[in-house]
């Protein structure tokens, strides 16, 4: 089966998902989505073209799919493969933050000093707290990037038995949990010391995943708004016939198109790490910048109806506001882009802007 056919199957599965029930049963909803994708043989294999994965993440954003699809396909799986760890088949999530990571000898369980003091035959003892982890209750495992006391970045694959989960949600009601680790023992086969380059890759992959979700939700805002203004009649004619409404609607479509173009360009970026990173930064920055305008126009043209609990618009806009502030802010992405451009010198400015 071609990857195009597989993606079409996956999109068909996502079309049947419903974001409305996430607040009541998030883990069950996520598992149901994943099981349906597996049943339909619609889960993209490891190594799938990034452009296809980005397209699928955009569809998940459009549908408000209640599952960690973008986190699994665009972030967790590639990082595990790059680090040389086994990649689980089920849904995964990603977290980062400072933790106390130390090796402990398998035979005695005693602490033996900072990470790196012994070889890879020792298990790792981990303590600390990871905040606002998406979909932890629905994931088979959590991919964690942290910093060892003396050995630099470390990648861990945590299982549910190794942490205490404190439930939380974001503005849209999606799970954002706190994971507490108290001297948790993580086997050596789920631990890798990784280079700084993998940390940078994790950052831009997370930003791209959020940007893809936002771009999909923006398209949802466009569709809902176009339908609403065409069907809502005021002063004897549809809202879409008023010039002011047409102008705002055109602006809405423009902003959504900018997001989609930036995200698609990042998905199709060359495999060169620097090029992929820069394209992902650009997509994340554009998505973050456009969220305010897209949500403003969509809610303005819907009026008070769009803010109600029963409105499907709310499911899209609250997600966009939440995702914009996760895995990097608008200012952070823009600073990175500006720094790269300045460091490249004047001769590299136009090729970077034009993608040449």
Q: Can you give a write-up of this model?
A:
The protein has a five-stranded antiparallel β-sheet, with no helix packed on it. Strands 1-5-6-9 form a four-stranded mixed β-sheet, covered by helices on one side. It is an alpha+beta fold. The relative contact order is 0.11. Helix content is 51%, strand content 17%. Helix 4 runs antiparallel to helix 5 and helix 5 packs parallel to helix 7. The longest helix has 36 residues, at 196-231. Strand 2 and strand 3 form a beta hairpin. The chain contains ten helices and eleven strands. Mean pLDDT is 88; it is low at 106-121.
Structure summary:
The protein has 356 residues and is α+β, with helices and mostly antiparallel strands. It contains ten helices and eleven strands.
Q: How would you describe this structure in keywords?
A:
356 residues, 10 helices, alpha+beta, four-stranded mixed beta sheet, five-stranded antiparallel beta sheet
What topology does this entry show?
Layout: H1 3-14, H2 26-39, H3 50-63, H4 69-83, E1 92-96, E2 100-104, E3 111-114, E4 123-134, E5 141-148, E6 152-158, E7 164-166, E8 176-186, E9 191-193, H5 196-231, E10 233-234, E11 237-238, H6 243-267, H7 273-302, H8 312-324, H9 330-344, H10 349-354
Parallel strand pairs: 1-5
Antiparallel strand pairs: 2-3, 2-4, 4-8, 5-6, 6-9, 7-8, 10-11
Helix pairs in contact: 1-3, 3-4, 3-5, 3-6, 4-5, 5-6, 5-7, 5-8, 6-7, 7-8, 7-9
User: Are there runs of 5+ residues with pLDDT below 50, and where?
Assistant: 106-121
The biggest beta sheet, please? Answer: 5 strands, antiparallel
Sheet with the most strands: spatial strand order: 3-2-4-8-7
Percent of residues in helices comes to: 40-55%
In one word, what is the shape?
A: globular
* Termini gap: 34 Å
Tell me the series of helices and strands, N- to C-terminal: HHHHEEEEEEEEEHEEHHHHH
How many helices in DSSP terms?
10
What's the Cα radius of gyration? 22 Å
Based on helices, strands and strand pairing, what is the structural class?
Answer: alpha+beta
| Overall pLDDT score | 88
- Name the beta content range: 15-25%
């Amino acid at each position: 089966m071609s990857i195009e056919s597989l993606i079409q199957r996956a999109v068909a599965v996502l079309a049947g998902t419903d974001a409305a029930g996430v607040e009541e049963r998030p883990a069950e909803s996520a598992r149901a989505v994943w099981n349906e994708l597996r049943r339909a043989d619609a889960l993209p294999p490891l190594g799938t073209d990034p452009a296809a994965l980005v397209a699928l993440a955009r569809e998940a954003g459009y549908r408000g799919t209640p599952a960690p699809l973008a986190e699994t396909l665009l972030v967790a799986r590639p990082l595990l493969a790059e680090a040389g760890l086994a990649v689980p088949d089920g849904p995964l999530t990603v977290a980062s933050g400072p933790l106390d990571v130390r090796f402990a000898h398998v035979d005695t369980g005693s602490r033996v000093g900072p990470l790196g003091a012994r070889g890879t035959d020792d298990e790792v003892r981990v303590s600390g707290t990871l905040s606002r982890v998406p979909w932890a209750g629905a994931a088979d495992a959590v991919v964690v990037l942290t910093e060892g006391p003396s050995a630099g970045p470390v990648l861990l694959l945590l299982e549910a038995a190794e942490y205490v989960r404190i439930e939380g949600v974001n503005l849209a009601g999606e799970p954002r949990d706190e994971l507490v680790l108290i001297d948790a023992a993580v086997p050596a086969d789920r631990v890798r010391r990784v280079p700084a380059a993998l940390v940078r890759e994790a950052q831009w992959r997370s930003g791209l995943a959020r940007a893809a979700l936002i771009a999909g939700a923006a398209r949802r805002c466009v569709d809902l708004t176009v339908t609403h203004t065409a069907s809502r009649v005021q002063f004897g004619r549809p809202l879409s016939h008023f010039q002011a409404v047409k102008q705002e609607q055109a602006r809405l479509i423009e902003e959504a198109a900018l997001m989609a173009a930036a995200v698609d360009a990042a998905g199709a970026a060359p495999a060169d790490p620097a090029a992929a990173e820069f394209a992902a930064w650009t997509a994340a920055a554009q998505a973050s910048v456009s969220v305010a305008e897209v949500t403003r126009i969509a809610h303005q043209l819907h009026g008070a109806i769009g803010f109600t609990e029963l409105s499907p618009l709310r499911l899209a806009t609250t997600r966009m506001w939440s995702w914009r502030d996760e895995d990097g802010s608008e200012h952070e992405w823009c600073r990175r882009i500006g720094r790269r451009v300045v460091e490249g010198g004047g001769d590299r400015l136009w090729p970077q802007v034009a993608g040449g």
